[in-house]
Specification:
CATH architecture of the largest domain: 3-Layer(aba) Sandwich
Distance between the termini: 7 Å
Binding site for ATP: 203, 300, 331, 357-360
Helix content: 25-40%
Subunit structure: Monomer.
Family: Belongs to the phosphoglycerate kinase family.
Structural class: alpha/beta
Subcellular location: Cytoplasm
Binding site for substrate: 19-21, 34, 57-60, 116, 153
Strand order of the largest sheet: 5-6-4-1-7-8
Number of domains: 2
CATH topology of the largest domain: Rossmann fold
Bound molecules: adenosine-5'-triphosphate, 3-phosphoglyceric acid
Length: 401
């Protein structure tokens, strides 16, 4: 895989595919970790006289402009971090993008509007994706892939565009792969994997492969309810991936045969409705219930205190830990305790600890932990999980030839 040192970038338009999918509260960025993570690549290219065109997705808009997912606030923050203005294009491949890119001088940078405002970006149709990649390719001479958090997506800017331009990996992707490789080689055991978060349908499948690798798998976050249901219990109105229940039952049976320990929550913190994370209004019907007695209508929003204690015990003797996905809706203080407890348990262990994922990394930082105390904070959750599974990642494969 070529790196930016292999490219002659001076005076050239360099397209940098970043993952600037940061958490927002309105237009306020609540954690800028992903912007800081890619800034060194952009700065290095600018220093070498490149005309840098940065692009990213943000959230999951439906293939058309949607102001709540605008990257405009990110352009401002990127400019602060780089110490120079970032011209913002109000579209991705339209008149604004073309004009902004054409106006770039050497050592100047622009950020395009959200790639996913265009249906071609995420299309499953090769021709539609290809047509959008052609439009993106017209904006640049060279391509640098550095959006590690999105390399598991077969999307136009991640997969199709690098095939159209001379390309290289950015500094962030180089660094991420360097560290994650350690978890695919000789891992120190016990190797404990902690899974949570809300992208349940995306991530249940990775367990298939982890069963052959991890010694212990701890399940929290939105993921836990499919496991609780697989044990035959009701989950009220909690996040449930009903079609995955038989799959999870098969995992539980296979884990027994393989001697892999699944640790499933014994209690959960619930409310009758999703908390208001914007206003942080107090939750007046907060309750902790046993995992096998979740009342109808209740929404499980965090692991309970007994589970937090149990997870801490299961992490205490770990020598390697990979954690993706918050244990609860940590964005509201009423449901942040489980995530806080797991982060603390990682620090209390003597393990090599890797925390992966946009929200997982944001959780660690916004809950006040010192990120330098962890072995590695990865910008990719789904991406690092799929890498650890040994899957071919479209955004890495595309950079490899
Ligand atoms: N019980 C739950 N019900 C609903 N949402 C939950 C629950 N527990 C956690 N979450 C939410 O999960 C979200 C994060 O999940 P996600 O799978 O996106 O993790 P991530 O670390 O960002 O990984 P990735 O980088 O793959 O997106 C948080 O916004 C959190 O509020
Ligand atoms: O947060 C992430 O995991 C990446 O930015 C990818 O986002 P996606 O799951 O919406 O493709």
């Amino acid at each position: 895989m070529k790196t930016i040192d292999d490219l002659d970038v001076a005076g050239k338009r360099v397209f940098v595919r970043a993952d600037l999918n940061v958490p927002l509260n309105g237009s306020t960025i609540t954690d800028d970790g992903r912007i800081r993570a890619v800034a060194p690549t952009i700065a290095a290219l600018l220093e070498r006289g490149a005309r840098v065109v940065v692009a990213s997705h943000l959230g999951r808009p439906k293939g058309e402009p949607d102001p709540q997912y605008s990257l405009a606030p990110v352009a401002v923050r990127l400019g602060e971090l780089l110490g120079k203005p970032v011209a913002f294009a109000t579209d991705t491949v339209g008149d604004s993008a073309k004009a902004t890119v054409a106006a770039l001088g050497d050592g100047e940078v622009t950020l395009l509007e959200n790639l996913r405002f265009n249906a071609g970006e995420t299309s499953k149709d090769d021709a539609e994706r290809g047509a959008f990649a052609d439009e993106l390719a017209a904006l640049a001479d060279l391509y640098v892939g550095d959006g590690f958090g999105a390399v598991h997506r077969k999307h136009a800017s991640v997969f199709d565009l690098p095939a159209r331009l001379p390309h290289a990996a950015g500094l962030l992707i180089e660094k991420e792969l360097g560290v994650l490789k350690r978890l695919t080689e000789d891992v120190a055991r016990p190797y404990v994997v902690v899974l949570g978060g809300s992208k349940v349908s995306d991530k249940v499948g990775v367990i298939d492969n982890l069963l052959g690798k991890a010694d212990r798998i701890l399940i929290g976050g939105g993921m836990m309810f499919t496991f609780i249901a697989a044990q035959g219990h009701g989950v009220g109105s909690s996040l449930l991936q009903e079609d995955q229940i038989p799959v999870v039952q098969e995992y539980l049976a296979r884990a027994k045969e393989l001697g892999v320990e699944f640790v499933i929550p014994v209690d959960t913190a619930v409310s009758g409705s999703f908390p208001d994370v914007k206003t942080q209004a107090p939750v007046d019907d907060y309750a902790v219930v046993e995992a096998d007695a979740i009342p109808a209508g209740a929404l499980g929003l965090d692991i309970g205190p007994k589970t937090a204690q149990l997870f801490a015990e299961k992490l205490a003797d770990a020598r390697t830990v990979f954690w993706n996905g918050p244990m609860g809706v940590f964005e509201h203080p009423a449901f942040a305790d489980g995530t806080r407890a797991v982060a603390q348990a990682l620090l209390d262990s003597n393990a090599f600890t890797v925390v992966g994922g946009g929200d997982s990394a944001a959780a660690v930082r916004t809950l006040g932990f010192d990120e330098t105390k962890f072995g590695h904070i990865s910008t990719g959750g789904g991406a690092s999980l799929e890498y650890l599974e040994g899957k071919t990642l479209p955004g890495i494969a595309a950079l490899e030839d």
